[in-house]
């Protein structure tokens, strides 16, 4: 799997799959794998590591992953604490280097802030747009 696809799917997993293995903030690899099984995930991502939507493959993956996560409040807004916890706890793996907890939380806040308003017609589209926004913010930081 190429690097762009790995980053994008990693972000998708962070935001989509809730784990019972590590307290509340780590992904469950078995559930993520189950969502990807039988799915040509290479067709989900463009050359800029953005999730392609609308797409049957993308919709199938995100609908599966949404069943395991609690990413929205009752009011339809993002559950910021949950998403920030996921971003922060997985930040070291995301950037490929060790980052202490305080710095990871700060960086998670910086990635989340410009992307925190759900945009889309349905939860799949909202999470795809959120994922793509975070990828853009991460790319900005990588080139700054």
UniProtKB/TrEMBL annotation:
InterPro entries: PBP/GOBP (IPR006170), PBP_GOBP_sf (IPR036728). It comes from the Eukaryota. The keyword Acetylation does not apply. Residues 1-20 form the signal peptide. Transmembrane segments: none annotated. Keywords: Signal. GO terms for molecular function: odorant binding. This is Uncharacterized protein. It comes from Photinus pyralis (Common eastern firefly).
